[in-house]
Amino acid sequence: FADLVLETWDLQCERNGREHRTAEMGCQQLVVRRGQPFTITLHFSGRGYEEGVDKLAFNVETGPCPVETSGTRSHFAVTDFPEESGWSAVVQQQDGGSLSISLCSPPNARVGRYSLTLETSTGYQGTSCHIGDFILLFNAWHPEDTVFLRDEDERCEYVLSQQGLIYQGTRDYITSTPWNFGQFEDDILSICLKLLDTNPKFLRDQNRDCSRRNDPVYIGRVVSAMVNCNDEDWGVLAGRWDNHYEDGMSPMAWIGSVDILKRWKKFGCQPVKYGQCWVFAAVACTVMRCLGIPSRVVTNYNSAHDTNGNLVIDRYLNETGQEDRRSRDMIWNFHCWVESWMARPDLAPGYDGWQALDPTPQEKSEGVFCCGPAPVRAIKEGDLQLKYDIPFIFAEVNADVVYWVVQHDGSQKKSTHSSVVGKNISTKSVGRDSREDITHTYKYPEGSEKEREVFAKAEHKKSSLREEDEGLHLKIKLSEGANNGCDFNVFAVINNNTDTDRVCRLMLCARTASYNGTVGPQCGMKDLLNVTLAPRAEKSVPLCVLYEKYGESLTQDNLIKVVALLTEYQTGDVVVAIRDVYIQNPEIKIRILGEPMQKRKLVAEISLVNPLAVPLNNCMFVVEGAGLTDGQRIKELEEPVEPKAEAKFRLDFVPHQAGLRKLMVDFESDKLTGVKGYRNVIIAPQPK
């Protein structure tokens, strides 16, 4: 027999991409999911393959030093039936000189970039030929993959959807901001693989790191550490919270992960400036979805940052309601992290499913700024000793807040108010643009027997709340929404739930604030020395907050913190109430003109009305949307936008992917920043 000569081959990127749900990554490279067969075609010249005469075998290798014992190299022969375990290659069909072969990786294979080599031998003669590279991802569709997710709608949302909503604002006024995850956009997959190859564990021991890439727990931990740069590693984002972002991008300005990851690569893996919690979480979510691990961004309102681990957050106020900065413990208005879905074979049964991963640099874990994966179930059950970092997240959703009022003589009075931590934990619903409340997955109902059991297990003594039906009760109310550029009223509502007259002093103070709890200058104040309350009476005291007072110092978080302090003269008791008011930005209007169809031009009309009493300068719109705009489109307006005038422009774009898409817009100017808007567009497929 003459030698078998391989002439050409076809990795069938397009067909395999469709079957493996990776087609949107483009058909220039073969991207497949583990445990699922993919087909390649070999063309021989001269004569075709003859079973029993010719031997065919494949070699697959990943990582810098592939070895069989680490699972980074495998050699397997072409057979008639697939192997039980390990890699396999099976003849599918033969047609003259062309041969279709189905290859399949085991469902626990290492993910990453592989090289594929074919070895042919006839008799004693053998040749080998490198026929290309392919990338192997986790497979949420395969029942034996550790990231297997049963529900198809959930797989579509948490693995395949390139766009979503992230919840911000305050617990009393929840807002959503659109985000372009863009995990299938050009070059993002190779950037995610580069991120794995620049992580310190890889640089320390490349072989060991690559051999552990079959484990989503390990990958999650690496990604959580690599999204921030606090460890002098090559992390993606630098965090900053002090409202000085001039030498980079303000965290509020981003509308997607693609821009951030591309900048990181372009500037030689230098950290991109700047991120805050939702940016860290969204970028980590993009990387995890890209690698095939189901993931979502979640927001926890009134999130505790307990630095000393005692599950108590002590806050100190002076008699005018100003915070005395004595405690590193903070209450964040909201805090975002990521949940990723995976089995936990490293733990006792019962902890599979959603795992919390927090890439925002806060505290070190095993010497590195990363957090998780922590089984959400373990957080709910108070199993603080399990891996990884459960006590920190348990505190974020369960810590107690105690307010101490520091009198002028230095003595401290404990307020009878207990603020509540871990509220309205939120994520985007599956397949819809509405909010899903997942608080019940993190904690049992407040005051329930189960909650008491969990706290006992976690050695957490929750301070008993004084019943609202006795003594004095204080609340801050808002009559209607607060709009940027306008004055608004807040009300301190006092209830005397006793049978005697009460005489009190009421302090009301408003200050601009950031979402991590720090406050700026005062923008409204009232001090009433003589408030008399009849028995069982209610009194409402208004405070008008003027735009001319808050406008200059409003941060890009658009928050105003209102503190009310009620001191009763007779007993000296102090009651504290705090409310964060979210200042609403104007709406960005988006109109789509034309019939939305793949590869056909569309026009978007984008506009916003300046709500302020002053002109807006240096106005800029940034538009992006996976599958719609081919990267970012930036429009700078030449003229200032006068008060009550409209900033407007038209954008032409050609959608290159069909299906439901989001067109996302960010508006920046000197006085109005980080304004977001989006529009859902259903793109019809191109007629065949």
UniProtKB/TrEMBL annotation:
Region annotated Disordered, chain positions: 414-443
Compositional bias of kind Basic and acidic residues: 430-440
Gene3D superfamilies: Immunoglobulins, Transglutaminase-like
Gene Ontology MF: a single term: protein-glutamine glutaminase activity
Occurrences of domain Transglutaminase-like (ranges): 269-361
Catalytic reactions on record: L-glutaminyl-[protein] + histamine = 5-histaminyl-L-glutamyl-[protein] + NH4(+); L-glutaminyl-[protein] + dopamine = 5-dopaminyl-L-glutamyl-[protein] + NH4(+); L-glutaminyl-[protein] + serotonin = 5-serotonyl-L-glutamyl-[protein] + NH4(+); L-glutaminyl-[protein] + L-lysyl-[protein] = [protein]-L-lysyl-N(6)-5-L-glutamyl-[protein] + NH4(+)
Keywords: Acyltransferase, Calcium, Cell membrane, Chromosome, Cytoplasm, Extracellular matrix, GTP-binding, Hydrolase, Membrane, Metal-binding, Mitochondrion, Nucleotide-binding, Nucleus, Protease, Secreted, Transferase
EC annotation from Swiss-Prot or TrEMBL: 2.3.2.13, 3.5.1.44
Annotated Polar residues bias: 417-429
Pfam family membership, one: Transglut_N
A single BP term in Gene Ontology: proteolysis
Protein family (similarity comment): Belongs to the transglutaminase superfamily. Transglutaminase family.
Protein name as catalogued: Protein-glutamine gamma-glutamyltransferase 2
Organism name: Eudyptes chrysocome (Western rockhopper penguin)
Gene this chain is encoded by: TGL2
